[in-house]
């Protein structure tokens, strides 16, 4: 986490200075109050005027430093949180697709929102208080050694004891903070699932069942938060009790010292300094534990796990001839979805996968597209084992079109170019090839027209064509399509299907729909029967001959 804090070194130094400014104000306040009591003892009007002048100067200085300190701290916090969000997002983006799919999308959303908010609320509040209390403790301890070395030694000895005592709480604090983070994930996933299926719940009158389930998740989450807050408060109250006992002992000692000639001003100054050393100290140690727990959250959302690394396979993806499956089989939970298959997929040809739901069509695509790699047998691309091809290189040459196309709340160009710096004309050409010419011509701002959240202002056909335009602009060698037309009416489905077949790519598509005069234009139909992939010439398959 040091790299995050030191990323903006100048601002970090200014942040530390800003956190230290209240220490100066606190010491000045202690001095002013001591001078006021000294005035009572001296009973000098001239000295009283001097104290009034000093007090007025202190008030002006205190107001100015407060504003300046806050501005410096806010500026640094903003930069650090931005860097944290970027690092958390970079960890997600760097994942292999297979690894990304091991968790729900809502878990990643929880990392980007809940965990970062937790980090912001706990870390920065604890950091500023830690720097302030640490700075105040050191300054006051030095002054106490000059005023009364006995009190200085006692306060320092107690501080060592409190430090060792607080270390007993550290491991538990970190674990409780992690529990809050994990429960936040579970709650986010549960709520997302409920909202996504709300229509079905209402139509079947079972929303109360899920409402109760969500309430249970809320109670669990609040319970985890309560445990963390209570445990942290327990540390603070325990240390405060130690501080009060020490302070009372020092107070009795100082009252005794007045018999030895200790003046009012020095008495009040010593009491305030002792108080400022003891109570910031007892609160400072639990803050260390909270900072440790914040570090654990930082590592959880930004540090890649050992398995979450970019594919370092040595070969680059080059597809000039054929993809060959040699005795490829795949099982899931002791169930063999795909039995030993021998198949050759030629570059530039169009393949349509058929078969009942659950037969393994999507699994077949995942095998060929590197998403699943724990299969038996071998898949080669122009003689190169697919498992030895870099995932990053592979993804640069393939595209995917699904039934549900995700669109960003950005311009049409950004949604097609995926925020890359691409020439406008190339984007327009991709739109035309994808069948978006009429749609584009009707837009006043053309490709720079804003798209609403997830394309709510677009039809299903327009969304699918934007997805096709992405693939065209990317100049993908292989296009994987999974039920792209299933949610469209027949007219839109026919147009999308024809557009896909006209593309100069190798097409591997899954579809349950058949469009007369169009679907038969595929080169091959790959039908999965009882786990076996059986290839047919499409012209033969759609003429009713399938054996």
TrEMBL record:
This is ABC transporter ATP-binding protein. Residues 323-547 form the ABC transporter domain. It comes from Peloplasma aerotolerans. It is found in: Cell membrane. It is a multi-pass membrane protein. One of its GO terms (molecular function) is ATPase-coupled lipid transmembrane transporter activity. The chain crosses the membrane at residues 12-35, 47-68, 123-143, 149-169, 234-256, 268-291. Residues 23-293 form the ABC transmembrane type-1 domain. The lineage of its organism: Bacteria, Bacillati, Mycoplasmatota, Mollicutes, Acholeplasmatales. One of its GO terms (cellular component) is plasma membrane. Keywords: ATP-binding, Membrane, Nucleotide-binding, Transmembrane, Transmembrane helix. Belongs to the ABC transporter superfamily. PANTHER family: ATP-BINDING CASSETTE SUB-FAMILY B, ATP-BINDING CASSETTE SUB-FAMILY B MEMBER 6.
């Amino acid at each position: 986490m040091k790299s995050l804090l030191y990323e903006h070194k100048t601002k970090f130094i200014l942040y530390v200075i800003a956190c230290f400014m209240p220490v100066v104000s606190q010491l000045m306040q202690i001095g002013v109050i001591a001078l006021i009591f000294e005035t009572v003892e001296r009973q000098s009007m001239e000295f009283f005027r001097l104290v009034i002048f000093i007090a007025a100067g202190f008030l002006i200085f205190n107001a100015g430093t407060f504003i300046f300190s806050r501005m410096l701290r806010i500026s640094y916090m903003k930069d650090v949180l931005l860097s944290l969000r970027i690092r958390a997002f970079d960890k997600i983006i760097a994942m292999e697709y297979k690894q990304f799919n091991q968790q729900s999308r809502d878990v990643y959303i929880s990392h980007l929102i809940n965990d970062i908010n937790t980090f912001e609320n706990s870390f920065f509040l604890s950091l500023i208080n830690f720097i302030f209390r640490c700075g105040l403790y050191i300054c006051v301890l030095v002054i106490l050694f000059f005023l009364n070395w006995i009190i200085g030694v006692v306060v320092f000895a107690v501080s060592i004891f409190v430090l060792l005592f607080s270390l007993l709480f550290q491991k538990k604090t970190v674990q409780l903070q992690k529990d809050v983070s994990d429960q936040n994930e579970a709650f986010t996933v549960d709520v997302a699932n409920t909202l996504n299926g709300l229509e079905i719940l209402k139509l079947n009158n079972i929303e109360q069942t899920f409402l109760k389930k969500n309430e249970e998740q809320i109670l669990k989450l609040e319970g985890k938060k309560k445990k963390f807050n209570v445990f942290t408060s327990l540390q603070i109250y325990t240390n405060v009790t130690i501080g009060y006992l020490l302070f009372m002992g020092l107070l009795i000692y100082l009252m005794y010292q007045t018999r030895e000639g200790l003046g009012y001003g020095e008495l009040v100054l010593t009491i305030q300094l002792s108080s400022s050393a003891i109570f910031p100290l007892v609160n400072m140690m639990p803050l260390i534990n909270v900072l440790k727990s914040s570090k654990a959250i930082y590592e959880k959302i930004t540090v890649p796990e050992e398995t979450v690394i970019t594919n370092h396979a040595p070969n680059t993806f080059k597809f000039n001839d054929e993809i060959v499956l040699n005795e490829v089989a795949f099982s899931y939970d002791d169930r063999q979805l795909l039995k030993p298959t021998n198949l050759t997929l030629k570059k530039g040809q169009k393949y349509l996968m058929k078969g009942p739901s659950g037969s393994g069509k999507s699994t077949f695509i995942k095998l060929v597209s590197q998403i699943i790699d724990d299969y038996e047998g071998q898949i080669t691309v122009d003689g190169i084992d697919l498992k030895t091809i870099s995932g990053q290189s592979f993804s640069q040459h393939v595209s995917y079109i699904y039934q549900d196309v995700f669109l960003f709340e950005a311009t049409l160009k950004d949604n097609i170019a995926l925020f890359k710096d691409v020439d406008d004309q190339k984007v327009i050409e991709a739109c035309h090839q994808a069948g978006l010419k009429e749609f584009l011509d009707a837009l006043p701002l053309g490709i720079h027209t804003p798209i609403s959240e997830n394309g709510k202002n677009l039809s299903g056909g327009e969304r699918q064509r934007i997805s096709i335009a992405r693939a065209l602009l990317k100049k993908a060698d292989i296009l994987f399509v999974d039920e792209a037309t299933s949610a469209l009416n027949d007219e839109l489905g026919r147009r999308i299907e024809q557009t896909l077949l006209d593309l100069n790519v190798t097409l591997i598509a899954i579809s349950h729909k058949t469009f007369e005069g169009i679907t038969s234009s595929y080169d091959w139909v790959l039908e999965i029967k009882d786990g076996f992939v059986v290839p047919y010439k499409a012209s033969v398959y759609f003429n009713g001959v399938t054996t």
